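seq:
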Amino acid sequence: MSKRLLSFFLLGLSLLLSACAAKTTEPAQTVEAAEPTSTQRSTNLQTVAAPVDLPGCTLSSPIPTPGPTEQSLFPPSKESDWTRGPDDAAITLMVYSDFQ
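struct:
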C-alpha cells in the first residue's frame, strides 16, 4: 500500500514540476525586408463623389416594447409591502424570498 501511495505521490510531484518548468523557445529567424524596385508613384488622384442619399439604418428590437394598454405580469406594490426609497421611483424591484 505504501509503495502504491509513494508512486502516486512521485507521479503527481513530477507532473507539478514539469508544469512549472520554464518554457524554452527558439529565437525567431529574422527576414530582411525587400527594397522597393521602383520609386515612381502616380500623382493622379481621382475623387469619387459620395452618394447624396445614404441608406438609413433602422434599429428594431427582437422583443417588442409593451403598449400603454398592456397589463403588467407582476402586481403593483401595496401599502403592506416592505419598501425602501421614494414611492414614485422609476423602477421598482420586488424580491420574494424566505428569510430563515
